[in-house]
Fold this protein.
Amino acid sequence: MKNVTDSFVFLGHWPSAGSFGFNTDILATNLINLSVVIGVLVFFGKGVLSDLLDNRKQRILNTIRNSEELREKAIEQLEKARARLKKVEMEADQFRVNGYSEIEREKMNLINSTYKTLEQLENYKNETIHFEQQRAINQVRQRVFQQALQGALGTLNSCLNNELHFRTINANIGMFGVMKEITD
């Protein structure tokens, strides 16, 4: 280290420019070369480095500005999406409520319709039963009447002789004749 500081201290004591030779002190020559290169770089590179840093700064600022704009747009879209979601949820709730009330109304209509249909079927069944009863009663009456008539004819045929039979027929014919005169 002492050699390095000595080389800087003795810079002013160099021999005049008349002689040219090699400096064998590696540390002194490297430091001088480095200081010259750094000085040239600082002198000439300051503008380039400043421009590079300014460009980089502008790109970073533009990126931040674009990010802020995108963020604001994203927030705006998010708010719109939330508003649409709220609206759709309200509509879904309304549809759900309307759907439930419609289902209840249809259920009541179906129950009422089924009740009316059952009532009509009950009435039809009762009418059918009544009709069948009347038919059965009429058939029994006809059979009873036929049997009574056959019994009466049998009794009349066994009890009546020809003369009595002849008088009964004449009396009936006479009654029919009187009835015919009354209707005419």
Confidence is low (pLDDT under 50) at residues 7-14. The helical segments are 2-9, 26-159, 162-183.
